[in-house]
Amino acid sequence: QVTLRESGPALVKPTQTLTLTCSFSGFSLRSSGMCVGWVRQPPGKALEWLARIDWDDDKYYNTSLRTRLTISKDTSNNQVVLSMTNMDPVDTARYYCVRIRGIHLLMDVWGQGTTVTVSS
Amino acid sequence: EIVLTQSPGTLSLSPGERATLSCRASQSVRSSDLAWFQQKSGQAPRLLIYGASSRATGTPDRFSGSGSGTDFSLSISGLEPEDFAVYYCQHADGSPGFTFGPGTKVDL
Prior knowledge:
Distance between the termini of chain A: 40 Å
Largest interface: A-B, 22 and 27 residues
Structural class of chain B: mainly beta
Helix content of chain A: under 10%
Number of strands of chain A: 11
Largest sheet of chain B: 7 strands, mixed
Radius of gyration of chain B: 13 Å
Shape of chain B: globular
Oligomer: heterodimer
Order of helices and strands of chain A: EEEEEEEEEEE
Number of helices of chain A: 0
Strand content of chain A: over 45%
Protein backbone atom coordinates (compact mmCIF):
# COMPACT_ATOMS: atom_id res chain seq x y z
CA GLN A 1 0.00 0.00 0.00
CA VAL A 2 1.36 3.38 -1.04
CA THR A 3 1.12 6.15 1.55
CA LEU A 4 2.54 9.63 1.88
CA ARG A 5 2.47 11.85 4.94
CA GLU A 6 3.39 15.49 5.18
CA SER A 7 4.90 17.06 8.27
CA GLY A 8 6.09 20.51 9.20
CA PRO A 9 5.16 23.62 11.13
CA ALA A 10 1.55 24.73 11.20
CA LEU A 11 2.53 28.35 11.68
CA VAL A 12 5.41 30.37 10.26
CA LYS A 13 6.17 34.07 10.44
CA PRO A 14 6.52 36.29 7.37
CA THR A 15 10.04 36.21 5.87
CA GLN A 16 10.81 32.87 7.53
CA THR A 17 11.72 29.72 5.63
CA LEU A 18 9.21 26.87 5.55
CA THR A 19 10.54 23.32 5.57
CA LEU A 20 8.14 20.46 4.89
CA THR A 21 8.91 16.77 4.93
CA CYS A 22 7.10 14.07 2.98
CA SER A 23 7.55 10.59 4.42
CA PHE A 24 6.39 7.85 2.13
CA SER A 25 6.09 4.08 2.00
CA GLY A 26 5.06 1.42 -0.47
CA PHE A 27 7.37 2.54 -3.26
CA SER A 28 10.98 3.55 -3.79
CA LEU A 29 12.41 6.70 -5.27
CA ARG A 30 15.18 4.53 -6.62
CA SER A 31 12.76 3.03 -9.13
CA SER A 32 12.94 4.32 -12.68
CA GLY A 33 10.07 6.63 -13.53
CA MET A 34 9.16 7.37 -9.94
CA CYS A 35 8.85 10.95 -8.71
CA VAL A 36 7.50 12.88 -5.74
CA GLY A 37 5.99 16.32 -5.97
CA TRP A 38 4.39 19.05 -3.90
CA VAL A 39 1.09 20.78 -4.58
CA ARG A 40 -0.54 23.49 -2.50
CA GLN A 41 -4.07 24.84 -2.16
CA PRO A 42 -4.87 28.19 -0.53
CA PRO A 43 -8.15 28.20 1.38
CA GLY A 44 -11.07 28.07 -1.06
CA LYS A 45 -8.79 28.21 -4.09
CA ALA A 46 -7.44 25.91 -6.76
CA LEU A 47 -4.49 23.55 -6.75
CA GLU A 48 -1.02 24.84 -7.59
CA TRP A 49 1.94 22.62 -8.40
CA LEU A 50 5.16 23.64 -6.66
CA ALA A 51 7.99 21.21 -7.33
CA ARG A 52 8.93 17.70 -8.34
CA ILE A 53 11.96 15.49 -7.79
CA ASP A 54 12.66 12.43 -9.91
CA TRP A 55 14.24 9.07 -9.18
CA ASP A 56 17.40 10.24 -10.95
CA ASP A 57 17.53 13.42 -8.83
CA ASP A 58 16.29 15.72 -11.59
CA LYS A 59 14.37 18.59 -10.06
CA TYR A 60 11.63 20.81 -11.51
CA TYR A 61 10.05 23.92 -10.07
CA ASN A 62 7.04 26.11 -10.66
CA THR A 63 8.43 28.91 -12.79
CA SER A 64 6.89 31.69 -10.72
CA LEU A 65 8.24 30.28 -7.42
CA ARG A 66 11.52 28.71 -8.46
CA THR A 67 13.74 31.28 -6.76
CA ARG A 68 12.14 30.42 -3.41
CA LEU A 69 11.91 26.64 -3.63
CA THR A 70 14.33 23.81 -3.01
CA ILE A 71 13.39 20.15 -3.19
CA SER A 72 15.60 17.28 -2.11
CA LYS A 73 15.31 13.60 -1.34
CA ASP A 74 16.64 11.13 1.20
CA THR A 75 16.16 7.87 -0.61
CA SER A 76 17.40 5.72 2.22
CA ASN A 77 14.80 7.10 4.59
CA ASN A 78 12.03 7.46 2.00
CA GLN A 79 11.66 11.17 2.50
CA VAL A 80 11.39 14.25 0.33
CA VAL A 81 11.94 17.72 1.73
CA LEU A 82 10.62 20.99 0.34
CA SER A 83 11.93 24.35 1.48
CA MET A 84 10.28 27.65 0.65
CA THR A 85 12.03 30.86 1.60
CA ASN A 86 10.67 34.31 2.41
CA MET A 87 7.20 33.14 3.39
CA ASP A 88 4.32 35.59 3.03
CA PRO A 89 0.70 35.49 4.19
CA VAL A 90 -0.33 34.68 0.60
CA ASP A 91 1.54 31.38 1.02
CA THR A 92 -1.02 30.27 3.60
CA ALA A 93 -2.32 27.01 2.19
CA ARG A 94 -2.69 23.29 2.56
CA TYR A 95 0.44 21.63 1.21
CA TYR A 96 0.19 18.19 -0.34
CA CYS A 97 2.85 15.64 -1.12
CA VAL A 98 2.06 13.44 -4.12
CA ARG A 99 3.54 10.43 -5.86
CA ILE A 100 4.09 10.97 -9.56
CA ARG A 101 4.90 8.09 -11.82
CA GLY A 102 5.28 6.98 -15.38
CA ILE A 103 6.12 8.71 -18.61
CA HIS A 104 2.84 10.62 -18.42
CA LEU A 105 3.57 11.83 -14.89
CA LEU A 106 0.44 10.60 -13.15
CA MET A 107 -0.20 12.12 -9.74
CA ASP A 108 -1.71 8.87 -8.57
CA VAL A 109 -1.39 8.92 -4.77
CA TRP A 110 -1.73 11.95 -2.53
CA GLY A 111 -0.95 12.59 1.10
CA GLN A 112 -3.62 14.10 3.31
CA GLY A 113 -1.84 17.42 3.34
CA THR A 114 -0.65 19.76 6.04
CA THR A 115 -1.98 23.24 6.67
CA VAL A 116 0.53 26.06 6.90
CA THR A 117 -0.48 29.51 8.09
CA VAL A 118 1.80 32.48 7.58
CA SER A 119 1.18 35.14 10.18
CA SER A 120 3.10 37.32 12.56
CA GLU B 1 2.78 28.29 -20.56
CA ILE B 2 -0.47 26.44 -21.04
CA VAL B 3 -3.54 27.83 -19.24
CA LEU B 4 -6.53 25.61 -18.49
CA THR B 5 -10.03 27.05 -18.29
CA GLN B 6 -12.88 25.06 -16.79
CA SER B 7 -16.59 25.64 -17.22
CA PRO B 8 -18.98 26.04 -15.68
CA GLY B 9 -17.62 27.25 -12.38
CA THR B 10 -20.50 25.60 -10.55
CA LEU B 11 -22.91 22.95 -11.76
CA SER B 12 -26.06 22.52 -9.72
CA LEU B 13 -27.64 19.14 -10.30
CA SER B 14 -29.63 16.45 -8.56
CA PRO B 15 -28.74 12.81 -7.91
CA GLY B 16 -29.37 10.69 -10.97
CA GLU B 17 -28.73 13.52 -13.41
CA ARG B 18 -25.89 13.65 -15.92
CA ALA B 19 -23.03 16.09 -15.43
CA THR B 20 -20.80 17.37 -18.20
CA LEU B 21 -17.73 19.39 -17.26
CA SER B 22 -15.50 21.21 -19.72
CA CYS B 23 -11.76 21.89 -19.73
CA ARG B 24 -10.20 24.04 -22.40
CA ALA B 25 -6.46 24.48 -22.94
CA SER B 26 -4.91 27.70 -24.25
CA GLN B 27 -3.04 25.65 -26.85
CA SER B 28 -3.23 22.13 -28.15
CA VAL B 29 -2.03 19.47 -25.70
CA ARG B 30 -1.46 15.76 -25.98
CA SER B 31 -4.38 13.74 -24.72
CA SER B 32 -1.90 11.52 -22.89
CA ASP B 33 -0.98 14.48 -20.68
CA LEU B 34 -4.52 15.45 -19.58
CA ALA B 35 -5.98 14.21 -16.28
CA TRP B 36 -8.99 14.85 -14.08
CA PHE B 37 -9.05 14.92 -10.29
CA GLN B 38 -11.92 14.81 -7.83
CA GLN B 39 -11.69 16.63 -4.52
CA LYS B 40 -14.32 16.17 -1.87
CA SER B 41 -14.71 18.68 0.91
CA GLY B 42 -11.88 18.43 3.42
CA GLN B 43 -10.08 15.72 1.49
CA ALA B 44 -7.04 15.47 -0.74
CA PRO B 45 -7.59 15.33 -4.49
CA ARG B 46 -7.93 11.91 -6.10
CA LEU B 47 -6.87 10.91 -9.60
CA LEU B 48 -10.01 10.10 -11.54
CA ILE B 49 -9.11 10.04 -15.23
CA TYR B 50 -5.74 10.03 -16.98
CA GLY B 51 -4.76 10.14 -20.61
CA ALA B 52 -7.97 12.14 -21.15
CA SER B 53 -10.16 9.02 -21.14
CA SER B 54 -8.67 6.22 -19.03
CA ARG B 55 -10.22 5.58 -15.66
CA ALA B 56 -7.84 5.36 -12.73
CA THR B 57 -7.99 2.40 -10.40
CA GLY B 58 -11.19 2.56 -8.40
CA THR B 59 -12.96 5.08 -10.63
CA PRO B 60 -16.54 3.96 -11.27
CA ASP B 61 -17.55 3.50 -14.88
CA ARG B 62 -20.17 6.24 -14.63
CA PHE B 63 -17.19 8.60 -15.03
CA SER B 64 -15.92 9.08 -18.56
CA GLY B 65 -13.42 11.44 -20.12
CA SER B 66 -13.08 12.52 -23.71
CA GLY B 67 -11.59 15.16 -25.94
CA SER B 68 -8.48 16.13 -27.81
CA GLY B 69 -6.45 19.14 -28.82
CA THR B 70 -7.73 22.02 -26.74
CA ASP B 71 -11.15 20.74 -25.67
CA PHE B 72 -11.72 18.03 -23.09
CA SER B 73 -14.68 16.96 -21.04
CA LEU B 74 -15.56 14.84 -18.04
CA SER B 75 -19.00 13.26 -17.89
CA ILE B 76 -20.72 11.67 -14.95
CA SER B 77 -23.72 9.62 -15.93
CA GLY B 78 -26.23 9.28 -13.09
CA LEU B 79 -24.82 11.38 -10.26
CA GLU B 80 -24.45 9.57 -6.95
CA PRO B 81 -24.47 11.49 -3.64
CA GLU B 82 -20.72 10.89 -3.26
CA ASP B 83 -20.01 12.56 -6.62
CA PHE B 84 -20.80 16.04 -5.37
CA ALA B 85 -17.33 17.53 -5.23
CA VAL B 86 -14.90 19.83 -7.03
CA TYR B 87 -13.30 18.54 -10.22
CA TYR B 88 -9.99 19.77 -11.59
CA CYS B 89 -8.44 19.13 -14.96
CA GLN B 90 -4.67 19.03 -15.12
CA HIS B 91 -2.02 19.14 -17.81
CA ALA B 92 1.34 17.49 -17.24
CA ASP B 93 3.99 18.58 -19.66
CA GLY B 94 7.06 17.53 -17.71
CA SER B 95 8.80 20.83 -18.21
CA PRO B 96 8.25 23.01 -16.39
CA GLY B 97 5.68 20.86 -14.73
CA PHE B 98 1.98 20.78 -14.14
CA THR B 99 -0.97 23.11 -14.61
CA PHE B 100 -4.34 22.79 -12.95
CA GLY B 101 -7.59 24.34 -14.05
CA PRO B 102 -9.60 26.50 -11.63
CA GLY B 103 -12.06 23.70 -10.93
CA THR B 104 -15.76 23.00 -11.40
CA LYS B 105 -17.91 22.49 -8.34
CA VAL B 106 -20.73 19.99 -8.74
CA ASP B 107 -23.29 20.60 -6.05
CA LEU B 108 -26.89 19.96 -5.19
